[in-house]
Amino acid sequence: DIVLTQSPGTLSLSPGERATLSCRASQRISSDYLAWYQQKPGQAPRLLIYGASSRATGIPDRFSGSGSGTDFTLTVSRLEPEDFAVYYCHQYSRSLWTFGQGTKVEIK
Amino acid sequence: QVKLQESGPGLVKTSETLSLTCTVSGASMNNYYWSWIRQPPGKGVEWIGYVHVSGTTSYSPSLKSRLTMSVDTSKNQFSLKVSSVTAADSAIYYCARGNYLHGVEVWGQGITVTVSS
């Protein structure tokens, strides 16, 4: 199965700053079957990005996804107070789906 | 608007079988991969597996020997069974809808399951 490794484990930033989160796959992910989720305490994860770069319905354009092959990035252009949360990447390119271990974005 | 709701016991005894059901409302079950995902306390999310209405299943290799998933379209439900549970199986269990366009796209609210003797 494909292992996803996210970095950094924790990102300490201030509101208004840019956040760059990385997700690296142990094997090439075909057709960009890579998604990103946001999870806040006590809530289920919420889909942000699918197909590596397409925003899900209702997701603000400050969230963007990029990358291909084995290296993918989630960027939050200007952090809003509600963006401080844990973010997960997820691959669904083959029948064995997997998630990364998560990156926590915390207030500096 | 599709909604998913998990149900089942919140406490399961060690070595017994954990059984959960997810009820789907607001949408057909056809053409989707109905998934289970869990999250141990204070940890990240872990994909458990999925079942398709065709009967196709895919299970996480680390759990495969203890898993059974099934779907009942007449009741708009799908289910998860995990046998021989230990404390390591204690987690929030989420049911979810997925496809090969969005991945896991809709999540239930989650149900907390504790395994204890």
Please give a handful of descriptors for the protein shown.
heterodimer, A: 108 residues, mainly beta, 7-stranded mixed sheet, 3-stranded antiparallel sheet, 55% strand, B: 117 residues, 4-stranded antiparallel sheet
Tell me what the structure shows.
The complex is a heterodimer of chains A (108) and B (117). Chain A contains no helices and ten strands. Chain A has strands at residues 4-7, 10-13, 19-29, 34-39, 46-50, 54-55, 63-76, 86-91, 98-99, 103-107. In chain A, the strands form two sheets. In chain A, strands 2, 4, 5, 6, 8, 9 and 10 form a seven-stranded mixed sheet that branches. A three-stranded antiparallel sheet of chain A has the order 1-3-7, with no helix packed on it. Chain A is globular, with a radius of gyration of 13 Å. Chain A starts with a strand and ends with a strand. The mean pLDDT of chain A is 96. Helices cover 0% and strands 56% of the residues of chain B. The mean pLDDT of chain B is 96. In chain B, the strands form two sheets. In chain B, strands 2, 4, 5, 6, 9, 10 and 11 form a seven-stranded mixed sheet that branches. In chain B, strands 1-3-8-7 form a four-stranded antiparallel sheet, with no helix packed on it. Chain B has strands spanning 3-7, 11-13, 18-25, 33-39, 46-52, 57-59, 67-72, 77-82, 91-99, 103-107, 111-116. Chain B starts with a strand and ends with a strand. With 117 residues, chain B is mostly beta strands. In chain B, strand 5 (46-52) and strand 6 form a beta hairpin. The radius of gyration of chain B is 13 Å and the shape is globular.
